[in-house]
Design brief:
The complex is a heterodimer of chains A (about 290) and B (about 200).
Chain A: H1 2-9, H2 22-25, H3 28-33, H4 40-56, H5 64-70, H6 82-93, H7 97-122, H8 146-180, H9 185-213, H10 221-226, H11 236-246, H12 252-258, H13 263-274
Chain B: H1 6-16, E1 20-26, H2 33-42, H3 52-64, H4 70-90, E2 94-99, H5 104-111, H6 118-126, E3 131-135, H7 150-168, E4 174-176, H8 181-191
Parallel strand pairs in B: 1-2, 1-3, 3-4
Helix pairs in contact in B: 2-8, 3-4, 5-7
The chains are: A mainly alpha (about 290), B alpha/beta (about 200).
Organism (chain A): Kibdelosporangium persicum
Protein name (chain A): DUF222 domain-containing protein
Protein name (chain B): ATPase
């Protein structure tokens, strides 16, 4: 990264495709800013804008002007060669040119490389990781701004999605615990139905979230609900039927009523749990397959 | 509250008969933009009253009865663009500040993974502003670990995408460091060689 930033120095800004290193063009912050991330020219423009913004707000005020001059921004002028820019930067920093080149310039380059990495970190989007929570230090009103409204709504949906995934996880764990305890079959089946309801609600939330906020994220609905835990194998039609019954915040009772006639689906779910090798003797009969 | 400096009022009056001068104040949420816009109004400097995107957003939400999906955002974005063009072309002479500008559309579209609309690119070429002031966020997260809410992270992302939009549009924005609204307005006026409202009494 440091070497790639150093190579940009020879020509300075603006960054051109000839001077931009792939390591820089592939940074998440650059890809995210590019109007067309697949296009190298677009990512080059994004790198140029990022560096200009970074240099305009260079965090070390002592060397801010020197850093800008070094890369060809005012007080330097476009087209000046590196030697002229370096001399100007040394003057801005109040150093002799040789000292500046040997001692200060490498540190400025390192600082810019670090800032680019920190910027990339800010652009990391990992929908597969639940948002971290921290104690609120005060009320955080949402600013009257369309961006802020969208961002707040995104976080609302994200929170709903993860609460649904964790609720499903809790019930799936409860089923496995009851099986391990060799609990009463009725208890196991009742909990398995609760797990189906929670799992289906999580799937409905995952569909809602990915449709609205992450159509291009690459995380499928199935990838998201798989994070809740293991579930019996279902066909696509069965998974859709379960999801449909849980959509719209349906209660457990409403969910069970909607699936009352779905004996095959009930069997697929409950047999999946009870027919596992750890409990070979616990095969339910058809009656137990009803979701109830 | 900032008071109108007589020297500033005289400078604004002198400029009012000249060519239009358009200055954009922009930045992501939590940048203190609303407070600064209020200070601009209080100083008697001509300025857009409210960012048109807010009312249009409310209208779209009401019509749809749900949050905006990707396809809705394009429609929203074009309607906001029309409102910004109307604001731009309605100004005929003198100094005027804008609460966001046409290139903010790049940030909005980038935030939602949309490619810039041809209408946005055309408007960006045709309607040029004289200076862009980007308000850096008031909340500074020195340590990335401090950014624990997805919302905070996204707000920072919005801000950087807005900045990139202005670079893409061929501007060199002036960054306004976090400070009080009055101090920021003084900084902006000094940059534009206008008398500082903060010195007016």
């Amino acid at each position: 990264m440091v070497a790639a930033v150093g190579r940009l120095l020879r020509r300075g800004l603006p960054v051109t495709p000839a001077t931009a290193d792939a390591a820089l063009l592939d940074l998440r912050g650059i890809v995210a800013r590019a109007a067309d991330p697949a296009d190298e020219a677009s990512r080059t423009a994004a790198l140029d804008g990022t560096l200009r913004g970074l240099l305009a707000r260079f965090p070390d005020t002592r060397y801010a002007s020197a850093a800008r001059a070094l890369f060809g921004l005012p007080p330097a002028e476009p087209g000046q060669n590196l030697t002229i820019r370096r001399n100007l930067a040394a003057e801005q920093a109040g150093h002799e040119s040789h000292h500046f080149r040997k001692r200060v310039e490498p540190k400025l380059i390192e600082k810019i490389a670090w800032e680019l990495l920190a910027d990339a970190e800010r652009f990391t989007r990992s929908a597969m990781i639940a948002p971290r929570l921290a104690p609120a230090t005060g009320r955080l009103p949402v600013e009257a701004d369309p961006f802020a409204w969208e961002v707040a709504e995104h976080e609302e949906q994200l929170s709903r999605l993860w609460s649904a995934i964790y609720a499903a996880r809790a019930e799936l764990l409860a089923v496995e615990r009851l099986i391990s305890l060799q609990a009463d079959r009725k208890d196991i089946l009742r909990t398995a139905v609760t797990a189906a309801w929670r799992w289906a609600a999580a799937r409905a939330e995952a569909i809602s979230y990915t449709t609205a906020f992450a159509p291009d994220l690459g995380s499928s609905v199935d990838d998201l609900v798989a994070l809740a835990g293991w579930t019996p194998a279902l066909t696509s039609a069965q998974a859709s039927r379960l999801t449909e019954a849980a959509t719209g915040g349906a209660s457990r009772e409403q969910f069970v009523a909607a699936l009352h006639a779905e004996t095959g689906l009930g069997n697929a779910w409950t047999h999946g749990f009870l027919a596992r090798p750890t409990s070979p003797g616990n095969t339910p009969d058809e009656q137990n397959g009803h979701l109830s | 509250m900032t008071t109108t400096n007589p020297a500033l009022a005289a400078a604004l009056k002198a400029a009012s008969t000249g060519d239009p001068r358009r200055y954009v104040i922009t930045g992501g949420p939590s940048s203190g933009k609303d407070d600064l816009i209020e200070a601009v109004h209080a100083a008697g400097i001509p300025c857009m009253a409210e960012e048109p995107g807010r009312e249009i957003y409310r209208k779209h939400r009401e019509r749809l009865g749900r949050h905006l999906l990707k396809e809705d955002r394009r429609e929203y974005s074009l309607e906001v663009l029309d409102a910004f063009i109307t604001e731009y072309t309605g100004h005929k002479g003198g100094i005027r500040f804008y609460n966001r500008g046409i290139p903010d559309g790049y940030g909005w579209e980038g935030f939602f993974g949309l490619r810039p609309a041809p209408q946005l690119e055309e408007a960006t070429r045709r309607y040029r502003y004289d200076a862009i002031f980007v308000l850096d966020p008031l909340d500074t997260f020195e340590d990335p670990d401090d950014i624990v809410w997805a919302k905070d992270r996204e707000i920072r992302r919005v801000h950087e995408l807005i900045v990139q939009g202005y670079y893409d549009a061929g501007y060199e924005p002036v960054f306004v460091a976090p400070d009080s609204a009055a101090a920021r307005l003084d900084f902006i006026c000094a940059n534009l060689r206008l008398p500082k409202p903060g010195r007016g009494t």
